[in-house]
Amino acid sequence: EDQVTQSPEALRLQEGESSSLNCSYTVSGLRGLFWYRQDPGKGPEFLFTLYSAGEEKEKERLKATLTKKESFLHITAPKPEDSATYLCATKKNSGGSNYKLTFGKGTLLTVNP
Amino acid sequence: DTAVSQTPKYLVTQMGNDKSIKCEQNLGHDTMYWYKQDSKKFLKIMFSYNNKELIINETVPNRFSPKSPDKAHLNLHINSLELGDSAVYFCASSEQGSYNEQFFGPGTRLTVL
Fold it and tell me: Which pLDDT belongs to residue B113?
């Protein structure tokens, strides 16, 4: 069965203290790994898609990387507004040209000023 | 402009009642989804429709019935509500294919008393 495991479950950082979130997966036929950000009371907001091992993508203070077994979301010099739950999801074929996402449970990031 | 909208945002009802949640997307996407996010924040796919046709139907009680009148709308009807149905339900949409991210609505918080 496909599994997506995120760690840690919660992470508390001081403003400016860099760190990384981990997403490990066991998925057959991976067609992409997605990172989303979810603020309280809102729907997930798309951040990145990674398709192959070695790929990296950056957006402001965030950088996502991918290996064959895991993905990391690196946060450099975070600010309080980066506080949110970060969700990782794998995408695989569900038949024909259709695909589905399997989400991890997320990492709740809190950045203190 | 709202990309994916859901109504209502909050729904409080008694056990045994029947209720519906509506979803609309104005992105021109072919595929729409319903997800359930439980109290532990775990986001799980329930259904997926592509051009009004059911594609994915995960292990969901048959009290849940999605209906897609057109490709811009995917409604979720729930019969005989149970306490365990309490959760946040998210609608999402995407273009068909593996390389496309899903866009999520703001969620509907359902509370069954």
Answer: 96
Domain boundaries, chain A: 3-112
State the CB neighbour count (10 A cutoff) for residue A59.
10
Tokens for B56, please give them: 């994915």
pLDDT (tens digit per residue) in A84-94: 999 999 988 77
Using a CB–CB cutoff of 8 Å, tell me whether A49 touches chain B: yes
CATH class of the domain whose range is A3-112: mainly beta
Contact yes or no for A39/A16 (Cβ under 8 A) = no
Whether A95 has its CB under 8 Å from any CB of chain B: the answer is yes
Asked if A98 and B31 come within 8 Å (Cβ–Cβ), the reply is: yes
Tokens at residue B54, please?
Answer: 């059911």
Is the backbone of residue A96 left (phi > 0), alpha (psi -120 to 50) or beta?
Answer: left
Tally of domains within chain B: 1
Instruction: Find chain B residues with C-beta within 8 A of A106's C-beta.
Output: 41, 43
The pLDDT tens digits for B41-100 are 789 999 888 877 887 777 788 999 999 999 899 999 999 999 999 999 999 999 876 567
CB-count burial class (<10 Å; 0-12, 13-18, 19+) for B64:
middle
